[in-house]
């Protein structure tokens, strides 16, 4: 059964670009999917996405998808504002998890030396440096499975959080799994956001990690959200997953009770000594398609270019910004991999007309785009494209 698209969609988004074969080899016009058409004209985010709808959006031809995602971006955000975030590894290596992409797992021989947690004053000094270079969000990561039995560590993290908030910076941490009591303590200390990535689809997840279940990750997100802390959760592209798995990740995130405040898009940086150390960088079109789909299905969320951005050209980064990405990690380093520097990013922003987002600010569009509804003589039809593997 075919579905009519929204009649107010601009005609440039509903032009036919070919046909696909339907049942009994019946040719069906392959036009803008109904789910995408509705998203472009939506006035608010929704959490009722189905997996089939997300697949429709993801599989839209890329030129049409990025055109639509740019329109959505301008409805919900100032398209010139980019959030600058700096990430510090406050406790390196020695993690008991077996994440097949991670240099910090004690199960992999990567040559990385485990360290103790950084002193509070050292972390606060790094945050001051980040702020002086334009970052407005400071993120801290510790390599361990969870916070059980880490009362001293939690006390130190809370001191870091409080000190960074006194600098009028947003602050995010990623500390593995936490329970509801730990989440409340972090909230009381002033934590802005908690990062806990789902990494990939539920179906593909066991191929990447076996020491922590998908449901355990989701429970941590529940604890964070219930404590009133913003959820930061995204994925890693290039783990060997298919397009269907990327759709699965986006479906899970977009159908949560509340969309995450931020969605990091990581591209795998292969680390020698890890099980995925010999993989190649994922093709850029898959990164761009994921960014654009995330913008469409989670219109109010900040979409952040995270690990692997350093491998993208300036033009590829700008293509992601135009498709809806509006945050980056910038500074001296990621957790264990290289990062684009502040000076490099400032030069890119100046060249292309972007500016840093302020702390605790989500700039609204300066002027909503004017779209004149174009009546259609007859109802258009859609046919979802099949997900490739």
UniProtKB/TrEMBL annotation:
Pathway annotation: Cofactor biosynthesis; biotin biosynthesis; biotin from 7,8-diaminononanoate: step 2/2
Record: residues binding [4Fe-4S] cluster: 95, 99, 102
Keywords from the UniProt entry: 2Fe-2S, 4Fe-4S, Biotin biosynthesis, Iron, Iron-sulfur, Metal-binding, Mitochondrion, S-adenosyl-L-methionine, Transferase, Transit peptide
CDD domains: Radical_SAM
Single Gene Ontology MF annotation: metal ion binding
Superkingdom of the source species: Eukaryota
Domain Radical SAM core: residue ranges: 80-309
Cofactor: [2Fe-2S] cluster; [4Fe-4S] cluster
Cofactor binding note from Swiss-Prot or TrEMBL: Binds 1 [2Fe-2S] cluster. The cluster is coordinated with 3 cysteines and 1 arginine. Binds 1 [4Fe-4S] cluster. The cluster is coordinated with 3 cysteines and an exchangeable S-adenosyl-L-methionine.
SMART domains for the chain: BATS (SM00876), Elp3 (SM00729)
Region Disordered, residue ranges: 360-389
Amino acids binding [2Fe-2S] cluster: 139, 172, 232, 304
UniProt cross-references to NCBIfam families, sorted A to Z: bioB
HAMAP family in the record: BioB (MF_01694)
Name this protein carries in UniProt: biotin synthase
Annotated source species: Penicillium cosmopolitanum
